[in-house]
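so my prof wants the structure for this chain in the tokens format not the other one, which i didnt know existed until like an hour ago. anyway here's the sequence
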Amino acid sequence: MAFRFCDGFDSYASGSDLVKKWSIADASFTWSNSAGRFGGGAVANAGAAGGKQLQKLNIAASVSDMAAGFYLKASAAPAAAGIVLNVVNSAGASVGDISLNTAGTCSLHANSNSLQATSSINVCDGAWHWIEFRLQWGNPSYLYVDNVQQGTTGGGGNLGNNYASVYLQSVAGITTTWDDVVVYDSTTGAPTPASNFPINARQITTLRPTSDSVVGFGTTSSGSTHYNLVNETVPDGDTSYVQDGGSGTQDLLNFASLGYTPTAINVVILNVYSDNPAGGTINIQGIAKNSISQANGSAIVSPLVYQTNQWPFALDPYSGVAWVAAGVNAAQFGYKNA
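here's what i got, hopefully its the right format
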């Protein structure tokens, strides 16, 4: 599960829906369905003072190496330097951040705010820029802007074998907009920073179910088809749902095609919005199937309140190698009681 979290900001109706994928969303963050780098959704903050935050909590455990990338558009250089992305450990201390500077450049900090690298590219020009960085425990950290390495790396990261959360933060006086955020680390899976950093600019495309493949969940909110109860743009909780308490029960659904042919696909990430409506404990896992081969994601305890969980599938379960567009278009994805 090397990919820890991603968001293309494409399945929202308003900023209030951000908490369905992120953990905490300050009201100063707004969402638009057309502000994104590739014409889809994006999230913005119009200069709220005090470092207001959009937070994804508890996304990782102890690791020695992590990386993240995101598209950023800044309306102007700030009057005072401010953090736009912060990496925080389980004790609540920052172990790395990306900040915007008064010159319009961006900097990577680690080692308790020690400067690691500063860009030579102006990223506060009202245009989109892909920013990617890597933090390591006891080794140099790296900063890339628009796929080009920036500055001289510092002497060592401050990951401390521990990072827990990623925050997007406002910068006073300017509007900042984010799109296509990805976080990955050195846990088992792909990509990993050691062999794949930088992954370079990535496009996140959101696909939804279009029909049932083979479904087994025994209870629905209405009707006998399942895909139309779980393909919302914004998850609606108990309004439309499928449900089953049996161990091993699963739903496989057919999804919309990509509509284009990417040159490379790092990973397919399945999002499932679920809760446990009854007493007791049950595990749930995401699944991917192509032809006769099925891959099961790691089992997690179904949460007691609705939340979005993500399962990454770096390899096509049929071919055993990286996905290609045809494989994604032919595959089914779904969920299973483990």
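also thought this was worth mentioning. The domain at 3-196 is CATH 2.60.120.200 (Jelly Rolls).
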